[in-house]
Amino acid sequence: MEQICRFHRVLLKLSGEALKGSRTDGYEPEAVKQIVERIRSIRDCGVQVAVVIGAGNLWRGAAGAGAGMDRVTADGMGMLATVMNALCVKDFLRAAGIPALVQTAVPMEPIARRYDRDAAVAALEAGTVVLFAGGTGSPFFTTDTTSALRALETDCDAMLKATKVDGIYSADPMKDPTAVRYDRLSFDEAISRNLRVLDQTAFSMCRDNHLPIIVFNFNDPESFRRVLAGDTGAGTIVSDN
To answer: Residue 181 has what DSSP assignment?
Structure first.
C-alpha cells in the first residue's frame, strides 16, 4: 500500500546516541542501518530529506567545558564529531543505494563540502539526502539550533525531532512516572515551561518563522509512518497554535 505523506521537505534531527545502539559510545552498524531504513521510508513516499545529527555518541562540548576545557575549543571538538557522524550515515546511505551528500559549516574539503544553501536545495530537489554537519560553525550553538537554522534556510515544511519517547512530556517519563504527555503545544508554551526537548534558541527561531516541530519516537516504525502521514496523535506538535 502506498504511503501518504503530508510533507514536501523535512529536516530530521537525530541525536548522536541513535548511532551507538547498545554500545556505550561510537557506532553500532545495526543502529546506523535502522536510521538508514527510517530515512528510506521518508524518501519512498516522495519527501525530500535533510538531516542534522548530534555528537553525543562521541563528544559533548558542554561536558568538556565543565571539565575545565575552554568552551570554544570544546564546542569545536563537538562540531568535528558531528562531521564524523554525518560521514558515517552518508556511507551507510550510499551502501543502501540512497544518494547522500554531507555539507559542513566550516571548510573541510575534500572530506566534505562547505555548506552552500543553493547547492543543498538543488540536491534535495534531485532526491539526495543532505546531511548538515559542523553545527552553525560557531561555538555556543547546539545542533538543535543548527537544525532550526538549516530547516528554515532550505524551506522545510517541518522539523522532525527524533527521540526515544512518543512526544514531549512535562518531565522525563523514563525517570518520572507522573510525567504528563502533551499532544500539542504552542511555541510560547514550550518556551515558558522550559521544556528541554529542544533548546530555547531553536524554539524561538521556529516560532518567529512559523516552522512546526514534531517530536516523536524514532524507534517505533508505526509512529514514524503516522507522523509522515500527518497523524496529529503520533507525537507532540509544537506550532503557532
So the answer is: E
Burial class (CB in 10 A: 0-12, 13-18, 19+), 126: exposed
Q: Collapse the DSSP code of 113 into the 3-class scheme (helix H, G, I; strand E, B; otherwise coil) and give the result.
A: strand
Query: Listing from the earlier edge strand, what are the strands of the sheet with 48-53?
Result: 113-114, 100-104, 129-133, 48-53, 9-14, 158-163, 213-217, 236-239, 184-186
**Whole-angstrom Cα distance, residue 79 to residue 21?**
21
Q: How far does Cα 129 stand from its chain's mean position?
A: 13
pLDDT, one tens digit per residue, over 66-106 is 788 999 999 999 999 999 999 999 999 999 999 999 999 99
Q: In the structure, what pLDDT confidence band is assigned to residue 2 with cuts at 50, 70 and 90? A: low
Structural domain boundaries in the chain = 9-239
Report the CATH number of the 9-239 domain: 3.40.1160.10
pTM assigned to the model: 0.93
Grid cell at residue 123 = 540536491
